[in-house]
């Protein structure tokens, strides 16, 4: 096992102790589309030992410009099955738990209770705000990301401590046209890689995470910004706990 991760272990900030911590961590990946594909590839490569996989969707031809863990022959199959098969073929020692379900409300403690960190790879605003509510309600760390065309954003939410997604972008209705915008693979893969790096930094307690900060980038001009946010004292999601 250690030989697979020998190049990780050579890094001072990881080492054998850090690699064991990664292996003993449990991360829930919410959404197995483009972001989910990139997050899965990076978290398995980092050696996270247990991955939970949530999605209810089946693979379609239009997914294949970015959802690279799903293949042409998987079209019509469940994304949870395809993702789990990809992980097993990459490293059979990684445990996977699949939840072939659509989150409809915040009553899902049975899914998230065993995980240390949730990674938001959903593709619709409504699902993202619901996942944010779930993380706040059950006190779980959430690594949020959003992508559109050439732009990506990432932040890490620590319930009670950092602003939540609703503190930063107040949720309004009619935001759910988000997932019909265009998107390219480079935007998604960079965003997913940063989400995975956040997971690594949180597990190993490294400095300079995106807790309370929103990283945004634009691949048309390569501009990258890190914005600071404060908790919104009137945030209904934060107030609800
Ligand atoms: Zn909030």
Task: Summarize the topology.
Blueprint: H1 6-9, H2 15-23, E1 26-30, H3 34-46, E2 50-54, H4 79-90, E3 95-99, H5 109-112, E4 117-120, H6 125-137, E5 141-148, E6 151-157, H7 165-168, H8 185-203, E7 213-218, E8 223-228, H9 236-239
Parallel strand pairs: 1-2, 1-4, 2-3, 4-5
Antiparallel strand pairs: 5-6, 6-7, 7-8
Bound molecules: zinc ion.
Zinc ion (ZN) is lined by residues 163-164, 166-167, 232, 235, 237-238.
Which features does this protein show?
241 residues, 8 strands, alpha/beta, 8-stranded mixed β-sheet, 9 helices, Rossmann fold
**Strand arrangement across the biggest beta sheet:** 3-2-1-4-5-6-7-8
What is the number of helices?
9
**Share of residues in helices:** 25-40%
CATH superfamily: NAD(P)-binding Rossmann-like Domain
Sequence stretches where pLDDT stays below 50 over 5 or more residues? none
How many structural domains? 1
Count of beta strands: 8
Ligand names: zinc ion
In whole angstroms, the N-to-C terminal distance is 41 Å
Provide the β-strand percentage band: 15-25%
CATH architecture: 3-Layer(aba) Sandwich
- Compressed to H and E, one letter per element, the order equals HHEHEHEHEHEEHHEEH
State the CATH topology: Rossmann fold
- Broad structural category: alpha/beta
CATH class label? Alpha Beta
Q: Name the shape in a single word.
A: globular
Average pLDDT taken over every residue: 93
Oligomeric description of these chains: single chain
Main sheet specs: 8 strands, mixed
Q: Over all CA atoms, what is the radius of gyration?
A: 17 Å
